[in-house]
Amino acid sequence: MYRIGQSQDIHNLVKGNGLTLGQVYIPCDFQVVAISDGDVLIHSIGEAIIGSLGLGDLGEHFLEDEQEPGFSSQKIIKYCLMLLKQYHFKIVNIDTLIIIDNPNLKLYKKEIKKKLANILEISIDQINIKATTTEKNFSNIIQSQAIVLLQKEN
């Protein structure tokens, strides 16, 4: 049996000293406005996993008022890996799209992919990272979209 999950996360950007994507720090003149570390890529992947299992959305599992400010999104991944084991599913592949005008993510995509493969306990060829811009129409946001394919383990 296969299951597919899809999600997106979007946050505002403000002047700052960098952002985190896929648990990789990216130095730039912006930071994400968020209760957590603002890792929109992890958030969209995590919610896609939760959704593919039919377990609602990220907000149902991580209530805002119960989280420490700035908490690491790696907490979300650990939780999702636990759910995958509990329900006997494995990740077949993940396809993602990050939308941000600045900085250009070209230099970081390979590192993000390697880091995500490691923390998700999958091979590097099971994950894809794409990036695009809004053509400067929405320079004050960052958005991530993720599609996850799971397979039931025997």
UniProtKB/TrEMBL annotation:
Signal peptide: none annotated. It catalyses: 4-CDP-2-C-methyl-D-erythritol 2-phosphate = 2-C-methyl-D-erythritol 2,4-cyclic diphosphate + CMP. Its cofactor is a divalent metal cation. It holds the Pfam family YgbB. Binds 1 divalent metal cation per subunit. The keyword Lyase applies. InterPro entries: MECDP_synthase, MECDP_synthase_sf. The record marks T133 as: Transition state stabilizer. Its EC number is 4.6.1.12. It is an enzyme of class 4 (lyase). It comes from the Bacteria. One of its GO terms (molecular function) is metal ion binding. Keywords: Isoprene biosynthesis, Lyase, Metal-binding. Belongs to the IspF family. Involved in the biosynthesis of isopentenyl diphosphate (IPP) and dimethylallyl diphosphate (DMAPP), two major building blocks of isoprenoid compounds. Catalyzes the conversion of 4-diphosphocytidyl-2-C-methyl-D-erythritol 2-phosphate (CDP-ME2P) to 2-C-methyl-D-erythritol 2,4-cyclodiphosphate (ME-CPP) with a corresponding release of cytidine 5-monophosphate (CMP). Homotrimer. NCBIfam families: ispF (TIGR00151). This is 2-C-methyl-D-erythritol 2,4-cyclodiphosphate synthase. It comes from Spiroplasma sabaudiense Ar-1343. The lineage of its organism: Bacteria, Bacillati, Mycoplasmatota, Mollicutes, Entomoplasmatales.
